[in-house]
Amino acid sequence: FGLCRVSCMNAIRQYVKNITSVSTQKSVNEVRYHMHLAWQRLANNISPWRVKVRNRLQQMNGVWLHWGCGRRRLDGWINIDGWKSDATDYVHDLRTKLPFSDNAVELIFSEHVLEHVEFSVAENVLADFFRILQPGGKVRLVVPDLDKCCQAYLNRDKAWFSVVDAARVTAGDGLNHIFYSHFHRYIYDYETLALVLQKAGF
User: Fold this and answer.
1) CB 81 within 8 A of CB 94
2) What is the H or E stretch that residue 161 is in?
3) Strands 78-81 and 63-67, sheet pairing
4) CA distance 135 to 114
5) Rounded to an integer, what distance in angstroms lies between the CA atom of residue 202 and that of residue 185?
6) H or E element in which residue 81 lies
7) pTM, whole model, 2 decimals?
8) Taking CA 138 as the corner, what is the angle to CA 149 and CA 89, rounded to the nearest 5 degrees?
9) Tens-digit pLDDT profile for residues 17-48
10) Which of 137, 17, 32, 9 is nearest to 82 (CA)?
């Protein structure tokens, strides 16, 4: 019965995908995205287990934080993400205030996550990083490089896009894929990211 149910659900999803436009599918995905994160925020306040974990995190000091871990677990770090996987220690809407006390975190590492946060929210996220960091603490942020993307496009270097993303027919296709795929919200150059960090207190 379980396999039959999964097959039926997959068939329904494929049918809906086939009869709806790409723009409609993107709208549906947006709604699912926001509903999922809203549920995580609610669960973090009503689930006894999650409340217990959150309270424990609030008491910790000298934390090494892996912000937006996805499916990649770093041993010795607190791995936080908006989606549950074998890697996550705590599921959390990454756009909201983190469950750590002021000056409790020694290191923050985030790789290819900030570009998935709306630009209008990014300054608040980074200001919260500043809040939880100890004096002398360090943040390492890795994001797609807008300068390199534009240089590759101007050089018509579709091979570059194929290496950093996936095989692309043209450089223009590669550039658009960086901007419009993977739920990317904003692609930073060094100048813009530095400015947002400064506004956040760094």
Assistant:
1) yes
2) helix 158-164
3) parallel
4) 22
5) 22
6) strand 78-81
7) 0.82
8) 90
9) 665 565 676 777 788 888 888 888 998 899 99
10) 32
Token reading at 97: 């205030």
pLDDT (tens digit per residue) in 101-132: 999 999 999 999 999 999 999 999 999 999 99
Q: How many helices (H) and strands (E) does the chain have?
A: 8, 5
Phi, psi of 163 (to 5 degrees): -75, -45
157 by Cβ neighbours in 10 Å (0-12 / 13-18 / 19+) ranks as: middle
Contact (CB, 8 A) for 107 and 137: yes
Cα–Cα distance, 93 to 37 (Å, whole number): 6
In the structure, what pLDDT confidence band is assigned to residue 6 with cuts at 50, 70 and 90?
Answer: low
- The residue type found at 175 is L
Tokens of 107: 């290191």
Given pLDDT bands bounded at 50, 70 and 90, which one contains residue 138? very high
Q: Which two tokens stand for residue 54?
A: 């959150």
Output the six-digit token pair for 193.
Answer: 């990211």
CB 80 within 8 A of CB 94: yes
Please tell me the total number of residues recorded for the chain in this structure: 202
Q: Rounded distance, CA 79 to CA 51, Å? A: 17
